[in-house]
Structure prediction request, 176 residues.
Amino acid sequence: MKVALTGTPGCGKSEVARELKRMGYRIVRIEELARNFDCVIKEDDEIVVDIKKLAKEFAKTDFDGIVEGHLSHLLNPDITIVLRCNPLILKKRLEKRGWNANKILENVEAELVDVILVEALENKNVYEIDTTTRSVEEVTNIVDRLIKGKDTDKFKPGKIDWIAEVGDKIEEFVSF
Ligand SMILES: Nc1ncnc2c1ncn2[C@@H]1O[C@H](COP(=O)(O)OP(=O)(O)OP(=O)(O)O)[C@@H](O)[C@H]1O
Ligand SMILES: [Mg+2]
Prediction:
């Protein structure tokens, strides 16, 4: 089974993937896949992946495991798990990385308006997990259960509304 673990940068894909690996799951980063299948268009500070070509190549494989990365939902997975994070907290997580203000804003706004979730909704078996107040271990356990077909109703998409939750604090990062 092909599982995509996706979400806006900083939502916790890599942290959770590391724990899932420890549990015995096969994990691959989408960047590694792109290199293996010769689907890297350009690589300087950020890697640009030929996602159409990669999706085609990936479809030919019988990969059984989890692909981690914010483009992984574009690979026609059997299950798509979108990690979410309250934009106010995401901003703090990204600031810790020392990213510049524009890059932080771009990602925080993308999370605010559900960019990755909306893209992922093209897929079947899509779930979203709010990581804001959960530990990495808790999120890992939820992912494990979802892959096993448990709790699937609880994590159906559409329950998260960041715009409502952020309320007036939206002024902290949206420029009108
Ligand atoms: N419940 C949680 N699940 C995952 N990460 C969490 C959680 N709570 C806090 N964090 C923190 O959020 C950050 C997530 O960073 P991580 O590198 O995993 O994000 P990512 O989604 O892989 O981003 P990128 O797309 O840039 O690779 C880490 O600093 C982690 O400790
Ligand atoms: Mg990562």
